[in-house]
């Protein structure tokens, strides 16, 4: 297994208005090529911080991130990010939102439209190319965000609770679509979620972080064939296991009154 992404001795301290918050402490992690890796942990344990540092949107206090052996120094087209909030450009159509990154990279018009249409179709939005974001439901907007990210052909897709704002049914549908795309495209996915069910359904491995400062508490490999059956005994056993691992850390966070 090739290592796609490597996080080395990474720590992050935020300093603001005389406060000092240690968000992450000595994170060491390898994400393999084509792997679907999920990070979980209580609120405020540093998941988004870790994702943002990998994306190059923030810098570590100590340690470093390597993508294909090269140190991450800032944002780049090799990493595609999907956030929880829909981050579409409201003044551009679906098609124009998806072609945006390609436009920036100078891909010729005909070609970028062809690529964009392919991914719009892949996320099930064929026919909505000319719609504006306000004309779409939340789930549809998040599909556009995913299509936009994939159209840029990143080496790794970073997703921060991408389905958290969606209703349960839409969420399940998008999980399946994401899995289909992941299996077809064989991208490496770095995924953050609060949902144990989602983590087990999607992931090859689940990394559980401790309460702040986030350290790696445990890594659970999900050894289930796909498509996974959420009602199987094995699935329920993973659910129990992750709940147990997470509980202690969530309680710590609650006791601190966060
Ligand atoms: N820009 C910032 N300046 C100061 N502190 C920050 C900043 N960003 C995050 N923090 C702090 O770092 C810690 C980790 O935050 P982060 O957003 O990474 O947590 P999280 O695990 O993503 O939480 P959630 O599950 O609620 O999304 C928190 O204590 C937060 O207050
Ligand atoms: Mg977060």
From TrEMBL:
<dbReference type="InterPro" id="IPR050166">
    <property type="entry name" value="ABC_transporter_ATP-bind"/>
</dbReference>
<protein>
    <submittedName>
        <fullName>ABC transporter releated protein</fullName>
    </submittedName>
</protein>
<keyword id="KW-0067">ATP-binding</keyword>
<dbReference type="GO" id="GO:0016887">
    <property type="term" value="F:ATP hydrolysis activity"/>
</dbReference>
<dbReference type="InterPro" id="IPR027417">
    <property type="entry name" value="P-loop_NTPase"/>
</dbReference>
<keyword id="KW-0547">Nucleotide-binding</keyword>
<dbReference type="InterPro" id="IPR003439">
    <property type="entry name" value="ABC_transporter-like_ATP-bd"/>
</dbReference>
<dbReference type="InterPro" id="IPR003593">
    <property type="entry name" value="AAA+_ATPase"/>
</dbReference>
<dbReference type="InterPro" id="IPR017871">
    <property type="entry name" value="ABC_transporter-like_CS"/>
</dbReference>
<feature type="domain" description="ABC transporter">
    <location>
        <begin position="5"/>
        <end position="236"/>
    </location>
</feature>
<dbReference type="GO" id="GO:0005524">
    <property type="term" value="F:ATP binding"/>
</dbReference>
<dbReference type="Pfam" id="PF00005">
    <property type="entry name" value="ABC_tran"/>
</dbReference>
<keyword id="KW-0813">Transport</keyword>
């Amino acid at each position: 297994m090739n290592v796609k992404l490597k996080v080395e001795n990474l720590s992050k301290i935020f300093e603001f208005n005389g406060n000092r918050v240690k968000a992450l402490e000595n994170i060491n992690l390898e994400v393999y090529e084509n792997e679907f890796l999920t990070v979980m942990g209580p609120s405020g344990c540093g998941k988004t911080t870790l994702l943002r540092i990998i994306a190059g949107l923030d810098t570590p206090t100590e340690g470093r991130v390597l993508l294909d052996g090269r140190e991450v120094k800032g944002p780049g087209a090799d990493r595609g990010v999907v956030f929880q909030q829909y981050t579409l450009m409201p003044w551009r159509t679906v098609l124009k939102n998806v072609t945006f990154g390609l436009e920036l990279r100078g891909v010729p018009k005909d070609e970028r439209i062809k690529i964009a249409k392919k991914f719009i179709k892949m996320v099930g939005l064929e026919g909505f190319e000319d719609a504006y974001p306000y004309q779409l439901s939340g789930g549809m907007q998040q599909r556009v965000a995913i299509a936009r990210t994939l159209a840029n052909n990143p080496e790794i897709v970073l997703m921060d609770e991408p389905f958290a704002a969606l209703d349960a049914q839409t969420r399940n549908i998008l999980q399946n679509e994401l899995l289909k795309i992941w299996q077809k495209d064989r991208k490496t996915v770095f995924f953050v979620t609060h949902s144990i069910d989602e983590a087990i359904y999607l992931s090859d491995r689940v990394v559980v972080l401790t309460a702040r400062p986030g350290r790696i508490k445990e890594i659970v490999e999900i050894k289930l064939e796909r498509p996974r059956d959420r009602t199987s005994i094995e699935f329920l056993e993973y659910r129990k296991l992750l709940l147990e691992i997470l509980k202690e850390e969530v309680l710590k966070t609650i006791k601190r009154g966060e």
